[in-house]
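Why should sequence recovery work at all? Because a backbone constrains its sequence more than one might expect. Tight turns favour small or flexible residues, buried strands favour hydrophobic ones, and helices have their own preferences. The token representation captures these environments compactly. In the example below, the structure is given first.
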């Protein structure tokens, strides 16, 4: 059984997967919440978690693929209303190993997102050079450690 299958199986039990989000974004939210002590906020429509200061986080997970489209996050909605304060993103390989992870303020998201008027959503490309932007907080090591701990727990059956 691959790590991807193990993770997907584990996510379907307990509180790790919510109905309205794809499992990979739920897995990313689980990792961010465990790492930073955020609380999952299942009752809000446009953010996924809050920290102790009530800072709102929207979390996206993206599996990297060989085509260039893999670095475009799922559409974001209602950005004009500023539905979150920070975006947290985790990029995964095919086996759900963390490739990169970061957080960034909504102001940066608004400055880089492209509005798709036909569907009234925003697209956010996540190119490699984004890691050089000062407002981006690289949290790859922290999220990778949480993922490895989760993987070990799944393998132990915990």
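From this structural description, the recovered sequence reads:
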């Amino acid at each position: 059984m691959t790590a991807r299958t193990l993770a997907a199986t584990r996510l379907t039990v307990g509180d790790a997967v919510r109905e309205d989000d794809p499992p990979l974004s739920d897995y990313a939210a689980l990792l961010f919440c465990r790492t930073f002590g955020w609380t999952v906020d299942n009752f809000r429509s446009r953010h996924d978690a809050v920290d102790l200061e009530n800072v709102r986080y929207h979390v996206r997970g993206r599996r990297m693929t060989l085509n260039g489209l893999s670095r475009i996050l799922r559409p974001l909605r209602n950005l004009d209303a500023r539905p979150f304060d920070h975006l947290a993103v985790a990029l995964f390989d095919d086996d759900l190993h963390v490739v990169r992870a970061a957080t960034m303020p909504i102001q940066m998201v608004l400055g880089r997102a492209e509005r798709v008027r036909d569907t009234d959503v925003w697209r956010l490309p996540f190119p490699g050079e984004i890691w050089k932007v000062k407002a981006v907080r690289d949290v790859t090591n922290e999220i990778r450690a949480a993922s490895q701990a989760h993987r070990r727990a799944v393998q132990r059956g915990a």
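A few observations help interpret the result. Strands lie at 39-40, 49-50, 56-63, 76-77, 86-92, 98-105, 114-116, 121-123, 137-138.
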